[in-house]
Amino acid sequence: MFSRHIRRHGNGKLVRLTGQLQRDNIGISQFISYFLIIFFTNKHQVIYVATIAMEPSRLAPIQPYRVVVHNYPSHDPESNRFAQAYEYETNRHKRTALIFVGGLGDGPHGIPYVKFLADSAIAGESDYAVYEPRLSSAFSAWGYGSLSNDVKEISALVKYLRHRKTFRVDRIVLMGHSTGCQDAMYYATHGAEMGLEKIDAFILQGPVSDREAILAVFEEASPGKGQARMDLSVRVAQKMMSEGTAHDCMPREWLPKEFWTSPVSAYRWNSLASFGGDDDYFSSDLPDEKLAEIWGKVSKPVLVLPSENDEHVPDWIDVVDMLDKWKSFCKEDVISSLSGLIPEADHRVEYGPAGEPADRAQGWLCDRVHAFFKQLERQWLDEDVKADTKYQ
User: Fold this and answer.
1) pTM
2) CA-based Rg of the chain, rounded to a whole angstrom?
3) What confidence score (pLDDT) does residue 2 get?
4) Complete domains list, the chain, with CATH
5) 82-88 and 129-133 strand pairing
6) In this model, does residue 39 exceed pLDDT 90?
7) Are 317 and 284 in contact (CB under 8 A)?
8) Neighbours of 381 (CB within 10 A)
9) Which residues pair with 100 in a beta bridge?
10) Which among 367, 301, 293 has a CA at the least distance from the CA of 336?
């Protein structure tokens, strides 16, 4: 979801993080965005120190840390530019990779718990390293992105990790947060037909319906008229698409003000806001036949970790029931038994129910991800043994 454009605080009010802060008595001086200190090592890799701190009055700032920047061929054969991904520093080479993709408005280093995942993997001696690709749809470019293009770019990173001459990676898990979960699901359900590189498992943290969250924004702005206003905005987008202007920018007057900070194409708006759009994987009103079509295609293990207090999930949705429903349409054991609500967590696993830092929730998340990797390692070992037996 649009987690870098709006955020619900513990008091339930919306606070815009870009432009003028509204509805809360919070000064702009309280917010710190990003700074980067760059050290060039050679033409192939860059190591830099990055720090992110938001709302320092409520969260302790993350200290500067180092990552390795990987440059690798773009998915576009006609491009003369390298793609980039950032690997969190590890204590040794890891044969398993966790690729993390955030939501709308997110980008590398934008979700604080990813650093904690990387650190706890070292502390717990888990055998995986964390990578974050800089997708062309990152940060404010999400409005001109698409799931189809995102997964092609992710596949380029997978290809690089699997086939590079030194320190190859054997197993790869794709983890999505928010709308990044849609990237993961699109990869899981379309990867084979698109000829994408193989991914071995998936993690969905904070899967939410962008369509239902957008409806809630419309409804808050125009009580009782939200659905009608949203339907009208979708019709405008679809008309533009039918006229051959799918990639033109949506007129601002048809969008909620929370979306005015980034240009949004007619295609992407229709994908996010229309029933059955390309991004519509997690809506509570999807019919059973659609859920069977989606989840029936998923063949690799999936860990699903919704946030218990997700501010982007409307009150009328029972997330536990919805998770059980998804399981019912999967092949046996596709959705891991470790799946469940992250206790007391908001959408980004950043704050608790009283607005305090979500240390407990982040610890729970890290423990659950590590347990999933242990589960996967046992499964992969069994698969390797069966493969060896088959060819003896």
Assistant:
1) 0.85
2) 21
3) 54
4) 6-209+286-390 (3.40.50.1820), 223-280 (no CATH)
5) antiparallel
6) no
7) yes
8) 10
9) 175
10) 301
